[in-house]
């Protein structure tokens, strides 16, 4: 899916905030700078996003493969998504459409779907969300974490719950790792951090008893894995997306979280 450039994310080729686009496969369509690959819209295709694709590691033992080709399924659905339907989901969720797209979001009938990744970076399942907020998974999926299309090593990593909280963290300028629930997938998180070279991470718990308990357990696991962690909450809001919808900015979040104590 092509993403329109903006002032926050200008064209990686001409560095202008309009007219051009890029996708999550590492290509840019610049309307100003020519290349040997002309596009049908009058621009030119460049392999020049400057972003690093998610690194892939050799499969780690112990991860179960999904009962269907989840990677192929996701790519097939992504080819037929439409901007207007994604805009509708972005409006309902109170999130920028670009962040849903970078998190791999795609619509399937009345559902929104996101890929889940195991600790090696392979798609291991598909999580779905209905308009009423009901969350399920495509039959045969394995639970995994939600990740952006690209790893930004300069962005502060934040672990949160679910793909839409991860999209909110991305909109605030963090690098998100989303767990499918408040508990579980600890190994996926640890292996993902190790694969991406993350040695220090902020853990944002949903502001309820299960969320805080699950975050504390994950924090203990991360410490054992020699990954420093601090635990925070979304400043009186249910979760990070609700805080973002209420008007949270990166400056506000940094100020609220600056007093959190680091462990490990």
Q: In which order are the strands of the major sheet placed?
A: 1-2-3-4
Rg of Cα set: 18 Å
The rough form would be described as globular
Secondary-structure element order, N to C: EEEEEHHHEEEEEEHEHEHEHH
Separation, N- and C-terminal Cα atoms: 40 Å
Helix-strand makeup class:
alpha+beta
Strand runs, count: 14
Number of domains: 2
Number of helices: 8
> What CATH architecture label of the largest domain applies?
3-Layer(aba) Sandwich
- By CATH, the topology of the largest domain is Dna Topoisomerase Vi A Subunit, Chain: A, domain 2
Main sheet characteristics: 4 strands, antiparallel
Determine the strand fraction and express it as a percent band: 15-25%
Text of the CATH class of the largest domain:
Alpha Beta
Integer average pLDDT: 87
Indicate the low-confidence ranges by residue numbers: 48-60
């Amino acid at each position: 899916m092509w993403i329109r450039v903006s002032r926050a994310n200008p064209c990686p080729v001409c560095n202008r905030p309009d007219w051009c686009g890029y996708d999550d496969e590492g290509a840019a369509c610049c309307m100003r700078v020519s290349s040997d690959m002309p596009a049908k819209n009058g621009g030119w295709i460049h392999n020049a996003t400057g972003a690093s694709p998610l690194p892939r590691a050799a499969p780690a033992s112990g991860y179960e493969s999904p009962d269907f080709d989840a990677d192929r399924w996701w790519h097939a659905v992504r080819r037929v998504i439409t901007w207007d339907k994604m805009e509708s989901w972005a409006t309902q969720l109170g999130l920028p459409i670009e962040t849903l797209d970078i998190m791999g979001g795609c619509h399937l009938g009345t559902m929104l779907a996101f890929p889940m990744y195991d600790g090696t970076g392979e798609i291991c399942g598909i999580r779905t969300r209905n308009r009423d907020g009901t969350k399920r998974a495509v039959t045969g999926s394995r639970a995994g974490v939600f990740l952006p299309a690209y790893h930004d090593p300069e962005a502060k990593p934040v672990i949160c719950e679910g793909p839409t909280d991860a999209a909110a963290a991305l909109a605030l300028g963090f690098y998100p790792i989303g767990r499918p629930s408040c508990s579980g997938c600890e190994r996926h998180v640890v292996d993902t951090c190790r694969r991406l070279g993350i040695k220090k991470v902020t853990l944002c718990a949903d502001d309820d008893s299960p969320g805080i308990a699950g975050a504390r357990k994950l924090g203990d696991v991360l410490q054992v894995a020699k990954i420093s962690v601090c635990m925070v909450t979304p400043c009186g809001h249910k979760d990070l997306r609700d805080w973002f919808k209420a008007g949270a900015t990166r400056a506000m979040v940094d100020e609220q979280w600056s007093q959190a104590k680091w462990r490990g």
